[in-house]
Amino acid sequence: MSHTLAELANYVGGRAEGDVTCVIDNVASLGSAGSRHLSFFTGGKHKDSLATTGAGAVVLSAKHAELSSTNLIIVDNPLLAFAKIAQKLNPQEHLPGIHPDATVESDAVIDATACVGAQCVIASGVQIEAGVVISASCVIEKNCVIGKNSRLHANVTLNDETTIGKNCVIHSGAVIGGDGFGMANDEGRWIKIPQLGRVVIGDDVEVGANTTIDRGTLDDTVIGNGVKLDNQIQIAHNVCIGDHTAIAGCVGIAGSTSIGRYCTIAGGVGIVGQIEIADNVHITAASVVTQSIANSGAYSSGTPLQENAKWQRNFVRFRQLDETYKKLKRIEKQINNK
Amino acid sequence: MSHTLAELANYVGGRAEGDVTCVIDNVASLGSAGSRHLSFFTGGKHKDSLATTGAGAVVLSAKHAELSSTNLIIVDNPLLAFAKIAQKLNPQEHLPGIHPDATVESDAVIDATACVGAQCVIASGVQIEAGVVISASCVIEKNCVIGKNSRLHANVTLNDETTIGKNCVIHSGAVIGGDGFGMANDEGRWIKIPQLGRVVIGDDVEVGANTTIDRGTLDDTVIGNGVKLDNQIQIAHNVCIGDHTAIAGCVGIAGSTSIGRYCTIAGGVGIVGQIEIADNVHITAASVVTQSIANSGAYSSGTPLQENAKWQRNFVRFRQLDETYKKLKRIEKQINNK
Amino acid sequence: MSHTLAELANYVGGRAEGDVTCVIDNVASLGSAGSRHLSFFTGGKHKDSLATTGAGAVVLSAKHAELSSTNLIIVDNPLLAFAKIAQKLNPQEHLPGIHPDATVESDAVIDATACVGAQCVIASGVQIEAGVVISASCVIEKNCVIGKNSRLHANVTLNDETTIGKNCVIHSGAVIGGDGFGMANDEGRWIKIPQLGRVVIGDDVEVGANTTIDRGTLDDTVIGNGVKLDNQIQIAHNVCIGDHTAIAGCVGIAGSTSIGRYCTIAGGVGIVGQIEIADNVHITAASVVTQSIANSGAYSSGTPLQENAKWQRNFVRFRQLDETYKKLKRIEKQINNK
User: Fold this and answer.
1) Taking the domains of chain A in order of start, what are their residue ranges?
2) β-strand partners of A184
3) C contact chains, 3+ CB pairs < 8 A
4) CB < 8 Å to C291, chain B
5) pLDDT band (50, 70, 90) for residue B321
6) Contacts of B181 in chain C (CB under 8 A)
7) What is the distance in angstroms between the Cα of A39 and the nearest Cα belonging to chain B?
8) Which of B77, B90, B136 minimises the CB distance to A121?
9) Nearest CA in chain C to A228
10) B neighbours by CB contacts (3+ pairs under 8 Å)
11) Which CATH code for domain B3-89?
C-alpha cells in the first residue's frame, strides 16, 4: 500500500517539499524510520531525533521545517495528518464469513459482508450490520445490534439488548451491558433492583480493553457519538457521556452522572454519582470530582509527590489544617487589636 | 407476568390507593412510564417527574402521597418495595441443559436443572448444583463448586478449587481464584510463592464485571454472605469480607486485610494490606485507608476539586504544611511571651 | 511429592533441627498446618501461632529459633526458602497436546510438549515453544510468540504480534497488545492514530488477572525480565518497565513513561505519561506521580483518613492553603517589624 510523497501530501491537504516522488510504504518513529517510512514531529524533546532521522519524509508544521534536512509534508496539524496517512497506509481488511467454530443462533441476522471469528457466541435476535468484524471468542447476547463497520476485538462481551453504532472499535475484555450496582436495603441486607435499561453507544466510539459499561436501571446508559474511552474505565448505570468526550484509563464514573461534550478526563479520575459536568471541562489526572461542574475549564485535586519522610510530616499536619487555620485567624485578630 | 395494583401492594405489604384493579405489566422510570407501568419515588429532585408521570401507579411513602395524582402503593421503604416488585415482574427463566458446543469433562457433576451455555469449559471434578445458570464462554476449572440457583454471566473465569454459594450472581469478565501476588525477594529477583489457598464465596453474593478475587496463599480468601461487589474491584489474597458489606466500583483491597460486616465502601477507595476494619464502617469515595479502623462510623480522605490555577497554588503549599504549622507555633509563642 | 526435613533443608541451604527424618508432604499456614506440613515464620504478629502450631516443621531465621518447639529449618531468608520448598512440593504438571475443541490455524507452530486447552483460538503465524501451557478459552492472535515453559491461565487475550518470553505466567482476563489510546484532534473530533508497535515481554514475568498492556504506537511497549505485575494494572502504549520491578494491583501508567529496574510500586498508584523514573524507586500506596523521579528512594503523596466530620473541615481548608500561607507570612513580617 505504497504512495509517493506528493500523493500523501495531497491526501492531507499539505505541501510536499524535497523529493516529492519518493515512495512511502509505511509510518515509523523518528528513531526507527527508514528511507521508505514517513515520520512526524510536533515539537518538544524529539528535536534531536528529527535532525538525525533516517525517515524518507517527515510531516511537520511550517515553523519546524528548517529543523529537518529530509523530505517534508508541511501542514497545520502534523499529528492529524500523520493519523490520516497512517490509516491510509494500514487498511484493515477482513474476509467476510462466519467461522465454523462459532456458535450462532438461527434467528441472528448477520450481514454477508460481516466477519464472525472462531469460538464466538451470537445469541438469538442479534443484528450485525455490513462490514462488522467480530474477532475470536466474543459473546453477543440476545437482541444486541452492532452498526456498520464496527469492530469487536477478541473476548468482548455484549450483554443482552446492547446497541453499538457505526464505525466503533471495542477492545478485548470490555464488558458492555452488565447489571448496574442497584440495591435496596432491607434491614441491613441488600436486595437487588433488576437492571432493565440498556447500554446505547453512538457512532465512532472507541472502548478500551477491560472497560466496563453498565446497563441502566430503568432508562439507558448513553455514550455519545465520537466518545473515546481508554482501558479499564468503569461507567456505572445511567451515566450519559456527551459527544466527542475523551476519557483516559482507570477512570471511574458513578451512577446517573452526566458528562458534557468535548470534555477530556485524564487517567485515574474518580467522579461521584448524580452530578452534572458541563461541556468543555478538562479534569487532570487522578482528581476526584465530588460536585457538579457548571462551567467549562480545567479542574484538579490532589497533593504533590514528595520524598516519603517529608511527606509523612505534611500528611500528619493535614489532620490539623482547620485547627491551624483558626489559630492563625485568632493570632491575626490579636495582633490587629493591639 | 401481569398483576393488579392490589396484588402488588399486598405482595410488598403496602396500601394500594386509587384504581386498585389497574393492571401493571412492568416497571419504568417516572419519565418514561406508561399506563401499565409502575414507577417509584423516594424524594429529591424527581418531584417534577412525579407530578407529570404517565405511570399507571407509583410506589412511595405516605409523606409523599399528596405529590402524586396517579394510583399509589404506599409503603415505608419504597425502594425496597420497588425492588421486590421489579423482581416479581421480571422473573429469570432458563431452559436447563448443556449446550452442545460446551466442553464438559466426564467427571464433572452437573445437576439436570442447571444450564451450561455455548463454548463453556467445565473441568474435571466440578460440581454444579440445581438451578445454576452458566452463560456462554465461562471457564470453570478443576474442583470448583457452584451452589444452587447461582448465575454466572458470560465470560466468567473460576480458577480451580473456587467455591461459590447459593443465589450468587457473577458478572462477565470476573476472575475468581487467580494467584495472589505473593513473592519472596532473592537478592533483587522475585521468586513466586505458590498460591495454594482457595476463594470461598458465601450465599447471595454479587460480583461485578471484571472484578478480580485472588485465592489465598495458604489459607482461603473469604467473601461473606450477602456481600455485594461492583465492577472492577480487586480483592487480594487472604482478604476476608464480612456479611452484607457492599463495595462500589474500582475499589482495591490489599492482601490479608479483614473488613467487617454491614460496611459500605464507596467507589475508588484503596485499602492497604494486613489491617482490620470494624463492622458498620462507611468509607467515602476515593479515600485511602492506611491503618486499621476500630470503631464504626464514616471515614474519608482526600482534597477538594478546584479550578486548576487555584489548585496549583494550594498543591504547592502542601509541601510546606509542616513548616507552616511550626512557623505558626513559633509566632504564637512569640506573641504570648510579649 | 514428599521429602524429609533434612532433604528440604539441604535443598534451600539451611540447617535442619529436631527430627530431621520427619516427612513433609506440603506447606500450610501456622494456624492450619498438621504434622506433615511445613510452615514459616518471619516475625511480627504471628508469634502466638508459632508457639502453638501443629506444623511438622517451621522454616525461620536463627534469631527466632527459640520461639518454636517443633522441628526447624533455619535459614537467613525464611520467606525465600519457604517459596522454594513450596514450589518443589507443588510441581505443575500438564499433559501435552491440543484439546480437540481448540481452534488452531494450520500454520501455527506449536511444540509437541506444549498444552493448548479447550476453546482456545490460535491464529496464523503463532509460535508456541516447548513446555508452554495455555489454559482454556485463550485467544492468541496472529504472529504472537510464547517462550518456553510460559503459562497462560484461562481467558487470556494476546492481540497480534505480542511476544512473551520464557517462564512467564499470565493470569486470566489479561489483555496484552490492545491499541494504545492515541488520537489526533480534528476541530473537536478525535481521529485514531493506528497503533502499529507491539508488546514485548521478557523472561520470568508475571502478569495479573485483568491487567491490560497496550501495544506501542510506532515503537514497542517493553516489559523487562523478572517484572511482576499484579491484577488490574493498566500499562499504556510505549511504556518501558525495567527488569525486576514489581507493581501491585490497580496501578495505572500513562503513555511513554519509563520506569527503572528494581522499583516497587504499591497498589493504586497513578503515574502520568512521558516521565522517567529512576532505578530502585519505591512508591507508596495510592500516590500520584506527576513528574520524573531522578533519584532512588521512597516517595509518597496523599492525605490521611479521618472521621468524616473532622475531614470535612480540613478538606475545606485545603482550598485556602495558599491564602493561609501568605497570611502567615504577612503576620510574621508584621511581628518582626515591631
Assistant:
1) 3-89, 97-299, 308-337
2) A191
3) A, B
4) none
5) very high
6) 208, 228, 230-231, 248-249
7) 34
8) B136
9) C190
10) A, C
11) 3.40.1390.10
Q: Is the pTM of this model over 0.90?
A: yes
Residues of B in contact with A214 (CB under 8 A): 209, 231
pLDDT surpasses 70 at B338:
no
- Collect all residues of chain C within an 8 Å Cβ-Cβ radius of residue B173: 173, 210
What are the tens digits of pLDDT across the range A31-40?
A: 999 999 999 9
Please determine whether the domains at B3-89 and B97-299 fall in the same fold group of CATH: no
Q: What is the pLDDT of residue A251?
A: 98
For cell 405489604, name the residue.
Answer: B13
pLDDT at C338 over 70: no
| pLDDT score, position B1 | 75
Give C225's contacts (C-beta < 8 A, 6+ positions apart).
Answer: C165, C202, C203, C204, C205, C243, C244
Q: Count interface pairs B-C at CB distance under 8 A.
A: 233
Q: Which of C322, A322, C331 is nearest to B332 (CA)?
A: C331
| Per-residue confidence band for C139, with pLDDT thresholds at 50, 70 and 90 | very high
Burial annotation B32-54 (CB, 10 A radius, 16+ → b, else e): bbeeebbbbbeeeebeebbeebe
For residue range A255-292, list pLDDT tens digits in order: 999 999 999 999 999 999 999 999 999 999 999 999 99
Spans of chain A below 50 pLDDT:
none
Fold category of C97-299 in CATH:
UDP N-Acetylglucosamine Acyltransferase; domain 1 (2.160.10)
**Closest Cα in chain A, distance from residue B28 (Å):** 6
Which pLDDT score, from 0 to 100, does residue B222 have?
Answer: 98
pLDDT interval class at B337 (50, 70, 90) = confident
Strand partners, C252: C234, C270
How far does the CA of residue C88 sit from the closest CA of chain A (Å)? Answer: 34
Residue C110 CA to residue C108 CA, distance in Å, equals 6
pLDDT higher than threshold 80 for residue C253: yes
Cβ atoms of C270 and C251 within 8 Å: the answer is: yes
ipTM given for this complex: 0.97
Contact check, Cβ <8 Å, A191/B80: yes
- Sign of the torsion formed by the C-alpha atoms of B156, B161, B166 and B168: negative
Asked if A154 lies within 8 A of C155 by C-beta distance, the reply is no
Catalytic residues of C: 237
C-alpha cell at position A47: 528535536
Distance from CA of B199 to the nearest CA of C (A): 14
